[in-house]
TrEMBL record:
UniProt protein name: GntR-family transcriptional regulator
Family annotation (Gene3D superfamilies): Chorismate lyase-like (3.40.1410.10), Winged helix-like DNA-binding domain superfamily/Winged helix DNA-binding domain (1.10.10.10)
Record-level GO BP terms: negative regulation of DNA-templated transcription
Coiled-coil stretches: none
Keywords: DNA-binding, Transcription, Transcription regulation
CDD domains reported for this sequence: WHTH_GntR
Entry keyword annotation includes Transcription: yes
Record-level Gene Ontology MF annotations: DNA binding; DNA-binding transcription factor activity
Length: 237
């Protein structure tokens, strides 16, 4: 019979999980030295276990110590806006404008927005906030001929979907793809995190009831701050 040796990091991680279960959000986590002494292991073993918990969003750095983090913000995979999703989870949404410019559509953007290559489109890039924490970076492309009026009416720190609906356009359907990714140095700087932190990358193309394109969106979310969920039902075969 072949036996599998359980890594020390896994055993330490299991013990730390038990400790965290008895702590509340914001409570201090024992130091590396204290945990290493308690479990009789090297500090590097404890350090690796804590790194895993940091990546998962279970704990976070605060000053020179570590505390229990709040639960991840769970966003629905639906046509609801980021604002609506955050509010439904009891969090205060916010946005920081990075760029708002007119650019020439590349091949993918032109195809998604159904416009000729190099057509001028509107590009909006914003950092997404939840209770003041930077959780995502959203890059949105809109057909300029449909939404040029937003230049004079829209506050980019608020919900874009609400502003789109105010123009009389309703989002009817969307295609969305999710994959894992790592942030570029620029993206990591904007999100105030390490380039080694796993990210969730979402690509979305939304259309109205007539099937006309509304937006092309690339959203990058911190894997330690955001989770996604979808409601599923039976399909007809």
């Amino acid at each position: 019979m072949t036996s599998t040796r359980v890594p020390k990091t896994f055993l330490v991680r299991t013990e730390i999980d038990i400790i965290l279960a008895d702590l509340a959000e914001g409570d201090s986590v024992p130091s590396e030295r204290e945990l290493a002494t308690r479990f009789g292991v090297a500090r590097e073993t404890v350090r690796q276990a804590l790194r895993e918990l940091l990546v998962e969003g279970r704990i976070r750095r605060q000053g020179r110590g570590t505390v229990v983090s709040r639960p991840k913000l769970t966003q629905p995979l639906s046509l609801r806006s980021y604002t609506e999703g955050a509010i439904s989870f009891g969090r205060t949404p916010g946005r920081i404008l990075v760029a708002w410019e007119d650019v020439e559509a590349d091949a993918e953007t032109a195809a998604d927005l159904d416009v000729p290559l190099q057509t001028t489109v509107m590009h909006l890039e914003r950092v997404l906030l939840a209770d003041g924490d930077r959780v995502g970076l959203e890059s949105t492309y809109l057909p300029l001929h449909r939404f040029s009026a937003l230049r004079g009416t829209y506050d980019p720190t608020t919900s874009l979907y609400r502003a789109i609906r105010a123009t009389g356009v309703e989002l009817a359907a969307a295609r969305e793809r999710i994959e894992t990714a790592l942030a570029t140095p620029r993206e990591a700087a904007l999100l105030e995190c390490s380039t080694a932190l796993p990210m969730l990358l979402l690509h979305r193309r939304s259309v109205d009831a007539a099937g006309a394109p509304i937006e092309r969106v690339r959203s990058l979310y911190r894997g330690d701050r955001i989770a996604f969920e979808a409601k599923l039902g039976p399909e007809n075969h």
